[in-house]
Each structure stands twice: as structure tokens, then as C-alpha cells.
Amino acid sequence: MVVTPWEVRGKVDYERLIREFGTQPLTEELLKRVTKHTDALHLQLQRRIFFSHRDLDSVLDLYEKGTKFVLYTGRGPSGPVHIGHLVPWIFTRSLQEKFNTRLYFQMTDDEKFLIDDDSSLKATRNYAYENALDLIALGFKPENTFIIYDVEDIDLLYDITLEVAKRITYSTARSSFGFQDSTNIGWIFWPALQAAPCFIHKKLTGENVPALIPAAIDQDPYWRVTRDIAQKLGYHKPAQIHCRFLPGLGAGGKMSASEPETSIFTMDPPELVKRKIWNAFTGGKGTATEQRKTGADPTVCSIFQYYYYLFEEDDRKLVEREQECKTGKILCGECKKDLTEKLNKFLEEHRRKREKAKNVIEKYHIKR
Ligand code: TRP
After folding, report:
1. Among 85, 149, 222, 245, which is best to mutate for testing ligand 1, by the most ligand atoms less than 8 A from CB?
2. For the chain: N or C, fewer Cβ within 10 A?
3. pTM tops 0.90
4. CA 49 to chain centre
């Protein structure tokens, strides 16, 4: 298993990540505390798609005493958005609404330019715009959402970035990120830029409140180095809530833009979605007769994961599907057909909203 900000490989053992990264599991007790402020527990918490955190308890302590927090998350615009990217954003949107709080969203067109040999600034800046449309389509509130495009908005980040960069040694950066002699120097400096939005709220408003970062767990190294220096700079340590990766449609592994056949992109037309789902890896048997007799294995099935993560919100129906799979009552073809329909309906709706986002995208752009 390899889990770094630039590479996720192998079967991810989330318990082991909690131990190795030194994060905290999301306990029943903590979730109860969250529910006090959100009335219902979000599906992604209930199903432990978000499963780990740092300092969520401290953020709630402060919140209950009257200090708000801001949300911060981001996207490396290296290509089109797939539905795996939407998972933490959907959850973030619900936090924004329930806690009525700001979201700072960083589009790292600079990061993707630096780390990918074949990319150009023109391409990453264009994807930043395209990806913002997918974000806005999810229903974020314009008055509370501040998208930062790194290249364009560098003037807002640069002073904070310098304060951060000055306090992180090369040796810390190398051991946290695995830099090599061949790593370009832009990339070595770059982590200070991902830290900057954690602290930008104070500069813009004068309020010193913590940032809570909902993101996939591979981003954790950034927050480790940022947390070490936050208090030296007079800020709260940024808190995190970490999610799992949406699996791809192949056997094991996360959904990854570098494997387009096993990823569903928001712009995939219905026929393509159908084909990808049709070719997906399942826990099915060689023949229908055999499967009717012995049942299949939903625990290894990529299709079942999609119901679990996004497309079956009703727990009772999810368990029913699982049972019918295990006992051979339902075959893979049916599950695939149902999912194709649900997915295409979702995507059609998403694209309608994405198109409308073109008229309002500037409202979401951080202002000076
Ligand atoms: N580095 C992230 C990526 O490659 C982008 C990012 C910037 C981000 N700031 C963030 C992700 C904050 C999560 C939270 O996708």
C-alpha cells in the first residue's frame, strides 16, 4: 500500500493509515456531538466514508463556546472531475449549510503544473475553471464560497506562504513528502502554498478562527507540516476530517483519472457510462446458473461500492441488495443496469446545473 499526496496504490488499509499517520478514528461519541449541531447525521459520516480526524473535537469545543470555524478544501486541476472527487465535496457542502460557515476552496493550477512533466500552465488553468463548474453545480452558497485560483490570486496568498515557508526546513519537507535530488525546486517550495488558505480568513476578516479541512486522507502530510508551525504564526492549528477513496470500477484501487476506463467522469455521455459499468469488476460467478446457486460476493464488488458511497441512501434497501446478491437472487447484470440508470440520471442533472454555473462562476471567485 502506498498513500501519498501524489500516489495511491494497492489495497488501502484505513485502520493502518490511522496508526501510521497518527490521526484519530471518528468515534460514535464524537459523531453524536456533531449531530447535536446538524440534526441528522450525514450519510458519509454514518457509513464512515469520513472515518478519521484531527482536532474535530477541539473545533467543536470552540464552536460550542461561540468561536466559529471556516471550511477549507481544494482540488488539483489536472484533468476532468470524476465522481470520486465529488464525494468529499458533497459532504463539504452539507457542512457549509449546517454550520452556516465559509468555505475556502483552493484550485492548485500551480501544483499540477509543477508536478506533472507534461502539463502546461494553460491547461491546468483551464481545468481549474472547468473543475470549478463541477464544484458550483453541487449547490455551494455563493455568499459563503471563496474559490482561490492559485496563479491568478497569488497576491492574496503570497505573504502567508512566505511566513509558512520560512518556518519549514528542507529536512522536514523531504521526510514528509519524499523529495529526491531530481525533484524540481518549485515542487519543494509548493507545500507552503497549500498551507496558506488555512490562515487566509484572518487576513480577510480579522477573525482568528480554526479551519476545518474535509479531504481524502492522502493530503495528510500537508496538514502535518502546517499544524507544526500554525501556532508559531499566531493561528489555530488547522483541523481535519479525512475520507476514504471512492474505488474505481476495476478490481481494487481508487478511482483515478489516469485510468479512464474504470472512472466515471461528470462529462461522460450515457452510452460511455453504460459501457464502463458493463465492464466493471464484480463479485459475480462464472455463470448465471452457478451464481443463482451459490450467490456472489458484494464485499469485493465495485458496483456495490457505488451504492454504498453515493447511490443507495436507504440503509434498508442497501442491506436488501446485499442479501439478494449473497443468496443469488439478483445477478450482476441487474445491479449494473440499475446503477447505470441512477448514475446517468445523476449525471444529467449535474450537467444541467454545471451549465448554469457558467453564468455565476465569478460570484464564487475570492475578492480582494
Ligand atoms: N493538493 C490537492 C490535490 O492535488 C489540492 C488541494 C489544495 C487540496 N488544497 C487542498 C485538497 C485542501 C484538499 C484540501 O488534489
Report:
1. 222
2. C
3. yes
4. 11
- Among all chains, which residue has been given the C-alpha cell 453515493? 310
Q: Look at the block and give the residue holding cell 454514518.
A: 46
State pLDDT tens for residues 162-199: 999 999 999 999 999 999 999 999 999 999 999 999 99
Residue of the CA atom closest to atom 9 of ligand 1: 74
CB of 131 sitting under 6 A from ligand 1:
no
Per-residue pLDDT, 174: 96
| Ligand 1 atom 11: residue of nearest CA | 74
From CA 40, how far away is CA 53, in angstroms rounded? 19
pLDDT class for 254, splitting at 50, 70, 90? confident
| C-beta of residue 160 within 8 angstroms of C-beta of residue 211 | no
Confidence (pLDDT) at 141: 96
Answer yes or no: is the C-beta of 73 below 6 A from any ligand 1 atom.
yes
Could you please report the per-residue DSSP string of 260-312? GGG--BTT--HHHHHHHHHT---S--SSHHHHHHH---GGG-HHHHHIIIII-
